[in-house]
TrEMBL record:
Keywords: Signal. Residues 21-281 form the Periplasmic binding protein domain. InterPro entries: Peripla_BP_I, SBP_2_dom. It holds the Pfam family Peripla_BP_4. It is found in: Cell envelope. This is LacI family transcriptional regulator. It comes from the Bacteria. The keyword Signal applies. One of its GO terms (molecular function) is carbohydrate binding. It comes from Paenibacillus oryzae. Belongs to the bacterial solute-binding protein 2 family. GO terms for cellular component: cell envelope.
């Protein structure tokens, strides 16, 4: 085959494959499953040798994985950081070894931005604002307090921090909107259910649930139904992601509003890997595009939902 063809950019001239080390957060949610699939499929399509490591939601596992990738001298390291803080040391090690790092999905709070090439992912603050904006509109004529409970994502993670702050920023425009309880459900169904049970026990008058992802909302729906209440009616539910199971619940009227967060980051990541290997200029921030869905929208969109 003519290996010098310019379209065959994914392979080095001698036919050597690009090796990409990827450290994934875990398998905590439907979003994550779709994200992992997208990364694995896109790496295969691009012809890269993907070394995939699952951190099971633990930062220490990610740090270990990154150190292993450095030892293995991979061409590029990409990872989705479980939490925002505490990355400087290991990122410095990668930099000193001359291995470029790409952040996907979640950000780090390192002030030294030379430690990574780019961050590809959603604007989580904006997602929180979208959730808040819909709620403000729904309750604009409220004469009594609106009691909101919040299921936060993994403590210290960028999506939990940002979805909270974006939401708070918007709902503060109406003092009737009150977050009466807020706790982490670690982005899982099991925890979402467990924490919602506790919320229901402690608070007899919950009007709204804001869940930082669909999975926690789905767990919470089980708890709400078990308590003899109607999700989507007795308690208005807002969530983030827009995975298929979330769409199903929304089309049944159990979730009232979903803010989309796109997990299909694989193609953009592989493009960025190629650009970095080729020594091309790359944007420091690549934001993914997404929308919002009411129950009606969800009904219409459900047949097209791929994940
Ligand atoms: O919303 C949640 C997952 O980091 C955007 O992580 C991602 C979040 C996503 O567990 O479902």
């Amino acid at each position: 085959a003519s290996s010098s063809s310019t379209t065959e950019t994914t392979k080095a001239p001698e036919g050597k494959k690009i090796t990409l080390g990827f450290s994934q957060v875990g398998a905590e949610s439907g979003w994550r499953t779709a994200n992992t699939q997208s990364i694995q499929d896109s790496a295969k399509e691009a012809g890269y040798d993907l070394k995939f490591s699952d951190a099971q939601q633990k930062q220490e596992n990610q740090i270990k994985a990154i150190r292993t990738f450095i030892q293995q001298k991979v061409d590029v390291i990409a990872f989705s950081p479980v939490v925002e803080s505490g990355w400087d040391t290991v990122l410095k090690e990668a930099k000193d070894a001359g291995i470029p790092v790409i952040l996907t999905d979640r950000a780090v709070d390192s002030t030294d931005t030379s430690l990574y090439e780019t961050f590809i992912g959603s604007d989580f603050v904006e997602e929180g604002r979208r959730a808040g904006t819909w709620l403000v509109e729904q309750f604009k004529d409220a004469t009594e307090d609106v009691n909101i409970v919040e299921l936060q994502g993994t403590t210290g993670s960028a999506p939990a921090n940002d979805r909270k702050s974006g939401f708070d920023e918007i709902i503060s425009s109406n003092p009737k909107l009150k977050v009466i309880a807020s706790q982490t459900g670690d982005f899982t169904r099991a925890k979402g259910k467990e924490v919602m049970q506790a919320f229901l026990k402690a608070n007899p008058d919950i009007d709204v649930l804001y869940a930082h992802n669909d999975d926690m909302a789905l767990g919470a729906i089980q708890a709400i139904e078990a308590a003899g209440l109607k999700p989507g009616e007795d308690i208005i539910i807002i969530s983030v992601d827009g995975v298929k199971d979330g769409f199903i619940a929304a089309s049944e009227g159990k979730i009232n509003f979903i803010v989309e967060c796109n997990p299909l980051l694989g193609p953009q990541l592989m493009e960025a890997v190629q650009a970095v290997v080729d020594g091309k200029e790359i944007e420091k921030r690549i934001v993914t595009e997404e929308g919002v869905f009411t129950s009606e929208d969800a009904k219409r969109e459900l047949p097209n939902r791929k994940y």
